[in-house]
Prior knowledge:
Elements: E1 19-23, E2 30-31, E3 37-38, E4 41-48, E5 58-62, E6 89-90, E7 95-96, E8 101-105, H1 136-150, E9 157-161, H2 163-174, E10 182-185, H3 193-208, H4 225-239, H5 242-248, H6 266-279, H7 284-295, H8 306-311, E11 317-322, H9 330-339, E12 347-349, H10 357-360, H11 362-374
Parallel strand pairs: 5-8, 5-9, 6-7, 9-10, 10-11, 11-12
Antiparallel strand pairs: 1-4, 2-3, 4-8
Helix pairs in contact: 1-2, 3-4, 3-7, 4-6
Amino acid sequence: MSEGARTFWRPADHPGNRKFATFTWGGAGLELEGGGRLEEVTVAYETWGTLDARHSNAVLVLHALTGDSHAAGEAGPGHPTPGWWDPLIGPGRPLDTDRFFVVCSNVLGGCQGTTGPSSLRPDGRPYGSRFPVITIRDQVAVEVALADHLGIESWAAAVGGSMGGMRALEWVVSYSERVDRAIVVAVGAAGTADQIALCSLQVRAIRADPRFAGGDYYDDLTGPSVGLSIARGIGQFSYRTWTEFESRFGREPQSDEAVLERGRYAIESYLGHQGEKLALRFDPNSYIVLSEAMNHHDVGRGRGGVAAALKGVRVPVTVAGVSSDRLYPRELQEELGRLIPRAGRPAVIASPAGHDGFLLETEQVGEIIRTALKRPTKAAPEFINSASWLR
């Protein structure tokens, strides 16, 4: 990994299991929804399984905010952490690699091999503050280019949770002819004021770090790591729940620290540790760019509103939410279930862990995926295998 305190991926680092593709869109570059342009985009991606002769068995797995292309596999050279959905991908697993060709790419704006703020521009300097505003739709446009590169005319399924769920929704709204079905987990049709507020506080924490330097901090080995750590703590608080925090930590002090002598409570130590871990593997600018892309998420923008946009979806969509999610509460998934013609009743992932339940409750998520992949793509709108849904 990169030298010094930061370990986000750079081209000189070990590639791990990554493959790379670079796109220029015929020399015109990628025109972004916000009016900017990227002359070229490099995408880092990983694959598992074998693409069949008809190129019809490909499944696109879409990661969340701080995920990357390493959805399955062990930690090792080039990969500081194990695959974030490892229990779900492999032979005999819900995303069965004996049956499917599974693809996961690092998202546009990320920091694990795909073009983002830490990437070098032609002048040899990182984009930094010069990286343009991007949206979820821009990220999906890059994923479309990757599908073309791989010779995949239509994905057998697009699967994602949180920010990945946003992209899965955009796939079925913008490119329904190129995806047979989607599995959308722990997200809504558009960012809410509550979600935007939490993201904006995290962004402000990073920008307030004296080492942020307006976004051009790449000559500083430490960079705004303190700001990123605080941002992650805010995020982690919103990802989990009161119940979990109370049962795990309560009012206990951290180890033998005396809280009345400026020692820490155990929950404070936990949030600090989560922030420090992320600061060792993630670029603060990417955290900002991707958080703001999530704030811009709105499938109804320019399409006559959310209801009009979702009404036009013509492929089966499986919607699921986490029972205790306070960041993307279940009413948002209920709305998707009502408005998408072939969604049906949302599945419920029973978990005390809040939003992170879509990453932690892999047995339940796996059952949802198995059931969804059995749904006929040309089923009647009311089709639903209710016996297999979790309540």
